[in-house]
Amino acid sequence: MIELIPAIDIIDGKCVRLSQGEYESKKVYNENPLEVAKEIEAHGLRRLHVVDLDGAASKHVVNYPTLERLAGHTSLTIDFGGGIKTDDDLRIAFESGARMVTVGSVAVKEPELFRKWLATYGNERVILGADTKNGKIAVAGWKEDSREELMPFLDRHVKDGVTQVLCTDISRDGMLQGPATELYRDIMQAYPDIRLIASGGVSHIDDIYRLEEAGIPAVVFGKALYEGRITLGQLTPFIP
Fold this sequence. Notes:
Order of helices and strands: EEEHEHHEHEHHEEEHEHEHEH
Strand content: 25-35%
Strand order of the largest sheet: 1-4-5-6-7-10-11-12
Distance between the termini: 8 Å
Largest sheet: 8 strands, parallel, barrel
Number of strands: 12
Shape: globular
C-alpha cells in the first residue's frame, strides 16, 4: 500500500503553499502549523513532510522552532528539509525532532559532505532530494538550475548507498494538474529497490490511486488537501 505523507511548508512560522516553487505565489493556509499537524495525526496518518521555505531561501535552517513544536506535540514521524547546508544545520534538524532529513542542494554541490552524512546517520534517516525541472536537478529552493541530469544524479547516489529518494517535478508542484506518474514509473524501473517518494501535482484522490497502481511506494501532497480537493476521510483506505 502506498504511504501517504502530507506536507507542511513553512514561511514565517506559518503553513503555506507555493506554485512551482515561486515565493511570490505564496498562500497562507494556517497561521499555526501545529493545528494542521494535529488534524492529520487525528485521522490516523503517521508521516509528515516539513519544508522550511525560509531556510531554503536563506541557505540555512530557519524554522526549527516550528519543527520543535510539531515534533514535541505530535507523534508523527517527521522528515524535514529546506536550508540544510552544514553539519550544524543537520544537527539542529535532528535535535529539533526530525526523524529524517531530505537533502538536495548539498548532494549536488557538496557530494562528499552528503556521503559523509549518509555514512554517519544512515540511509534510513537521510533522504535524497531530487527536485527536477526539464530533466535537470534544481537546487537552492528551486531558484538555481544545475547541470546535473536526473537519472545520472540518481545513479551516482544510489551507488553510494541512498535507499530513499524524494522526487519532485517542479513544473507540477502546487499546480493541481496531476503527478508525473510516467517519470516515477521510469525511476522505479531503473531503481526497483529504492523507496521512491513522489511529490508534486496531486490534485485529487484518483491521482493517489494511480500512483499506487504504478507501484510508487510513497507520495507527498499538500495543496490538494488544503484546497479541499482531497479530504482526510478519503485517505482512510490507505491508512493501515
